[in-house]
Amino acid sequence: MRAVRGRSRFRDLTTDQLVALEWPLLVLYLREDDRERLRVVANELWSIENNISLANMDWEEFAKAADDDGVFRGF
Fold first, then answer.
1. Please, are residues 45 and 52 in contact by the beta-carbon 8 Å criterion?
2. Nearest C-alpha neighbor of 24 from the set 40, 9, 13
3. Would 4 be classed as within a structural domain?
4. Which of 9, 21, 55, 56 fits a 20 to 30 Å CA distance from 45?
């Protein structure tokens, strides 16, 4: 996209803006034989990363907890 007076038409969003807008982020779970995806609101991303890293919960638990629109918004 063409820059206008030294500024790009794209801008970075802060975490606060992402949370306020509730724009879902795409989370990928990569395994050797399979790849799964899930959309998650920014303020719940920590929950997925922490619990899977510590083996407290499985990917499937988060996928099942997603809303009807496929976005995980927490438990």
1. no
2. 40
3. no
4. 9
Residue 3 lies in a domain: no
Q: Tens digits of per-residue pLDDT, 41-52?
A: 988 999 999 999
d(CA 75, CA 65): 7
Domain hosting 19: range is: 15-68
d(CA 41, CA 65): 13
Q: 53 in a domain, yes or no? A: yes
pTM of the model: 0.70
Question: Cβ distance 75 to 65 under 8 Å?
Answer: yes
| Residue 23 near residue 45, CB atoms below 8 Å | no
